[in-house]
Structure formats: structure tokens, C-alpha cells
Amino acid sequence: MFEALETGKALSNEDFQTLRSQLRPALLAEQFKLRDQPYPALVLIGGMDGAGKGAAVHRINEWMDPRLIETSAFWMHSDEEESRPFFWRFWNRMPRKGRMGIFLQSWYSRPWYDAMEGRLSKAEFGDILRDIEAFERMLTDDGVLLIKIWLHVSRKTQRLQLTEEAPRKQQNPRVPADADTWWKQYPDALTASEQLIRATDVSHSPWHLVEAEDRHYRDATVNQIILASLESRANTDAPVRTGIATTPDSRAGQPTLLDQVPLDKAVPKDKYKEKLTTLQSELQDLSWQAFHRRRSVVAVFEGWDAAGKGSAIRRVTTAMDPRLYHLIQFAAPTDEEADHHYLWRFWRQIERDGIATLFDRSWYGRVLVERVEEFARPDEWQRAYHEINQFEQQLLDHGSIVLKFWIHISPEEQLLRFKSRETQPHKQHKITDEDWRNRDKWSAYEQAVEDMVSHTSTAQAPWHLIAGNSKHYARLEILKTYCKALKAAL
């Protein structure tokens, strides 16, 4: 694969300056056009150590307006990053629509080094690369212009670079590296690089391979690739991918999964407080054990309007030390949130190891309210099932405990609670015109919930359908389930 990248490509200083005078204004023009586009551009710079990745990024920022570029280097990881799932650090640096981001080192770097140094088998590396390819497809499906550039140098050139013995004009300023170690590992690096590129060089996010022996040729080529990618995308409509078939009309009026939830379940008042105290005491102890074992909980609370999510969450948080959880309530996305992938705002909230993150409404809005209210196109909410499963699997792989609750009530019970909210001054803020509109779409939401459960209830992250006509019963069931999951994980 790499023989074609060791042919001696080079540019004279005169030719380089000529190209620079042509490329720079063209790049700036496309960069300013990008500001008005409904998508971001993300440039990944990867390749061999000593290939000049940092110098190439410097040149990009020199020829374009750096105020419109966010450059992120992931070569050093903080303990804050290490105590969260792997992709958290990248989601936090994703550019918003109309902006460009450059990742110097990316989600490829760590697995590539691990494969090169033998910490991952070929099969294990392949599994990770398949996950990365699926992650990149999720980004490009959402509209991200993903530009992946791989810089290659020969074994001889790499050694000269790392020992700072290359001709001065070709040297790349960098943190000193162990040249002898790299000399020995170079064949393994080539093997890992070839596997990486072959597994992830796909139509929606192809690799651009660049011979980096000559800095002039390298820098000009990198910027030509970025320019061509920006021009091509600006002149081409983003492909709309279709997912599973839309919900057939024949399901209308048929029994649903929610019909099986036993809404007559209740608990005697005289036993409620006793059981509540016992379960909260148990949860308090388990939460501290989870903290000391560095096991995080990611808990999702969904359900009908007026189903009692808030009161159930309060019974959970009352049992926990406030230092051990973070509760977030989500509504419609802000302008900044809408300028990113819908998962961005949730990824950013994931807490460190040992801390619980509780979501009052969550990423499932994509396949519920956004589906029913047609805020998302059918192809967008259809592919969200896979994207959500992938997201939750990444949380699980990191060691998090994922809990998902849907609190179900009957339409009759909801109506009683709506009317109660209208008449009680301290609850009137809880009822809105939107709540009444949603009630008119009960059947559509039932079908959406059934599809959500069938596509996203997995062995490691199942949905728990909680009978909520009795608030006391629902609170106890959620606490029981929460404690049971913690005990099993610990």
C-alpha cells in the first residue's frame, strides 16, 4: 500500500509559492462560504510520527482564517478524560455547523498505537475499527464533512526527523521521540496503518494518503485536499440515507407493548413509607460503593406527560449524597445544541467514573417527540436506533451502568392529573398547551414507544416499563430496579 507514497514527490520553493498564492485566497473563500452552510467540516490529520502532522496543521491555520477553526490535539489525556468513555473527549470538541475543526490525533490514535505495540490483537483492532467506521457514518449521515488525511514517511526519513538529522528546512519541530524505538517498531506501524486504512477507507469518509517526505509537497497537497473537499461538498447536496421501513398503517388500533403494563399495581399507604426508607437507605450505601469502585450510573427517565418522572427522580436523589450525582433536565435544543449532532449535548453531560448522571428526558427524544412532531425526517429518526445503541454500548464498554425507565400511565389517569395541575396554584406551571397537544397524539406516541423499546432494549441496557398510575408503586419499583442493577454490577 505505502510503496506509492515513497516515490520522491517534491516541490521547489518557486512552485510552492505559486501554489500558495493560488490556494490561499481559494481556501479563504470556501471557508467564508462554509459559515452559511448547514454542516460543519472536520479535518483529521493522522499518520506516522515524524511525518509533520503538527507542521501541516500549522500551515492550514496560516493559509485560512484561524478564528473560524478550532484546532484540537489529543496527544495528552487528562484524568478527566480518562474517567469518561473514550469518545467523550471528541464529542466535546466537535465543531458546530458552519465551522471547521481540526483534530491533530483523533479516535484512531490510541488503538493504532496499541495495535502497533501488540496490546491489541489483529482481531481486536479490527473490532475497534468497525466501531469507528460506524461512528464516522453516524457523523456523515448527520451532515458532517469529514476529511481524513494520512501523512506517510519512509523509515529512513522518519529516523532523520526524530533524531533531528533531517535537512534543516525539512525538519518538523516536535517533542523529542525515541528514534531507536520507532526504528524497531516501524514495520509494525506499517502493518497497523494498512489494517486501519483498509478498514475505514469508505465512501462516506475516505482516506487521503499523502507522501510527506517533502514539506512543500506535503503542505500544498494537504491544503489542496481540504479545498477540493469543501468545494465538492458546497456544490453537492448531502445524501439522504433511508433506514428501516416506516411504520405500517396496519398497526393502528392493534395492541401495543404498553397495553401489557399492569397499571392496577399499587402499594398500601401504610407500607409505602417503610419500604421507601429501606430502599433509599440501600441506595445510599450502594451509591458510595459504586463511587469507590469507580462505577458510574447513566439513568434515563422517560414517560408520558404527568407520569411522575420528577417525583420519582426526587426519591432517587434524596437517597444519594449530592456529590455523587448530576441531574440534568432537557427541553428543546438551544441554537448551539441544534448546530451539532443531536447526541452532542448528552455526551457533554456524562459524569466522571463513580458519579451518576440522571437524565430527565434524554436522547430518546429523537425517536419520540422529534419523530411524532416531525422535527426529524424519517431517515433521521430511523437511523437513530442504531446510533443510540452504539452510544449506550460505548458507555457500557467503559464500565458504566445504564438504566432506562419508561413510566406508563393510562390516558384517563393523565387527564385527572392534568386537571389537578390546572386547579392547584403550585402545580399550574407544570401544565402547558403543548401537553394538551401531545395528548391528542397519544396513539402516535404509543407506536413510537413500542418501536423504541423493540429497537433499543438490549440485554445490557434493557428498558424498564414502570406502571405509574400509582405514584407510590412507581417510585418503589424504580428504586428497587436501581438498587438491583447496582448490586449486580458491583
UniProtKB/TrEMBL annotation:
GO terms (BP aspect): polyphosphate metabolic process
Any Pfam family matching the protein: PPK2
One MF term in the entry's GO annotations: polyphosphate:AMP phosphotransferase activity
The Polyphosphate kinase-2-related domain, residue ranges: 12-234, 269-488
Listed InterPro entries: P-loop_NTPase, PolyP_AMP_Tfrase, PPK2-related
Source taxon at top rank: Bacteria
SUPFAM superfamilies associated with the record: P-loop containing nucleoside triphosphate hydrolases
This protein's name: Polyphosphate:AMP phosphotransferase
Organism: Parahalioglobus pacificus
